[in-house]
Amino acid sequence: MKTKGALIWEFNQPWSIEEIEIGDPVKDEVKIQMEASGMCHSDHHLVTGGIPMGGFPVLGGHEGAGIVTEVGPGVEDLAVGDHVVLSFIPSCGKCPSCQAGLRNLCDLGAGLLLGAAVSDGTFRIQARGQNVFPMTLLGTFSPYMVVHKSSVVKIDPSIPFEVACLVGCGVTTGYGSATRTADIRPGDDVAVIGIGGVGMAALQGAVNAGARRVFAVDPVEWKRDQALKFGATHVYPDVEAALMGIAEVTAGLMAKKVIVTVGELHGADVDAYVNLTAKGGTCVLTAIGSLLDTQVSLNLAMLTLMQKNLQGTIFGGGNPHYDIPQLLSMYQAGKLNLDDMITRQYKLEQINDGYQDMLDGKNIRGIIRYTDDDR
Ligand SMILES: NC(=O)c1ccc[n+]([C@@H]2O[C@H](COP(=O)([O-])OP(=O)(O)OC[C@H]3O[C@@H](n4cnc5c(N)ncnc54)[C@H](O)[C@@H]3O)[C@@H](O)[C@H]2O)c1
Ligand SMILES: [Zn+2]
Ligand SMILES: [Zn+2]
């Protein structure tokens, strides 16, 4: 079918809304009418080149929710009319990683940036006669999608789409960074560095896990105020202020768990993040920098002698098929505040305004809400 999507054709250019052609679902694929898409910082890395896809043009978007409108052969667990969330990590349930319980490390993830469909290895989207590379095999910046079933998770239809889309990436990643990867225990002191969509979810994970103190760090004053409303106990404008403040509050012990959710991770800053971490503690790097960045500043002796852990995480260490419905049921039970994480809603045509607002610190999360105008 012909529809439209937000594409980039070269680095550091604005998103371009234009016609795309999407193939019909083949074996193991479903077609989805998109209702909402979160605007995660990772799509901005596509623009800067921090995350280079296999080629251009790139169709952005990896945090979405919609309604199944067609199912291909071989799809048994999804039906027309189902409300679904797209997980930015496909999870097949069968590969060695999935079998080992590491569903966020599914072997299908190897093709995440390469653009070729899981189903048959072909390119299913074209624009201006060229193959399109969809972000993480999805491309939620389009009112329609055709995707492999391993990226699709059925949800309760009573959940608003604008809320549901957030658990396709940011919320599940942030919450899991706190509760799964950092394994926050009751009484831990926790620092969250960077209060965007991922950081605010990490903060909520820390609060729910029973953190004693939650230190939130962000240069934007409004975000620090929001962090306090969401349960932070102390806020700081930058890591230097946090180093001094946390040292004072904890009598030099520092934070048992540190979760780094800044927009762009730089190797030069890692030592400061580890300095915020208590002896025996864990510093979780959730933020992403340039894929080409291999230089890290780190005091190795202090890492060893203070027995600290420096830990990466993807999708918060979670299982899409378990965590997505689980977090949405916590939302329904009033245990997870997703409504107040949605700061602004945009039309697809306003995507560049939305990303500028993100960079200007105006949004916890901005989302695209599709309407019939977009279709
Ligand atoms: N590991 C994963 O699976 C995964 C998944 C999703 C997103 N991410 C990454 O997580 C990061 C956060 O994503 P997001 O969508 O929440 O971004 P965002 O832009 O919404 O939020 C980033 C926040 O960090 C703040 N910030 C920037 N520099 C800072 C600094 N030096 N100190 C303290 N705060 C700082 C900004 O003011 C902003 O509030 C990005 O790098 C994104 O690519 C990783
Ligand atoms: Zn994301
Ligand atoms: Zn798998």
Can you offer a commentary on this structure?
By secondary structure, the protein is an alpha/beta fold. The chain folds into 2 domains: 2-168 and 337-374, Medium-chain alcohol dehydrogenases, catalytic domain (Quinone Oxidoreductase, Chain A, domain 1, Alpha-Beta Complex), CATH 3.90.180; 174-313, Rossmann fold (3-Layer(aba) Sandwich). It is 25% helix and 25% strand. The protein is built from 11 helices and 19 strands. It has helices at residues 41-48, 96-99, 161-164, 170-181, 197-208, 221-229, 239-249, 270-275, 300-305, 320-332, 351-359; strands spanning 2-8, 16-22, 29-38, 58-59, 64-71, 83-86, 125-127, 130-131, 133-134, 144-148, 152-154, 189-193, 213-217, 234-236, 255-260, 277-285, 309-312, 342-346, 365-369. The strands form 3 sheets. Strands 3, 5, 6, 10, 11, 18 and 19 form a 7-stranded mixed sheet that branches. Strand 15, helix 8 and strand 16 form a beta-alpha-beta unit. Helix 4 (170-181) packs parallel to helix 5. The longest helix is centred in the C-terminal third of the chain and has 13 residues, at 320-332. The radius of gyration is 20 Å and the shape is globular. The mean pLDDT is 97. It binds nicotinamide-adenine-dinucleotide (NAD) and zinc ion (2 copies). Nicotinamide-adenine-dinucleotide binds at residues 40-42, 45, 169-170, 173, 193-199, 217-220, 223, 238-239, 261-265, 286-288, 313-315, 358, 361. One zinc ion binds at residues 40, 42, 62-63, 88, 169-170. Residues 15-368 form the Enoyl reductase (ER) domain. It catalyses: a secondary alcohol + NAD(+) = a ketone + NADH + H(+); a primary alcohol + NAD(+) = an aldehyde + NADH + H(+).
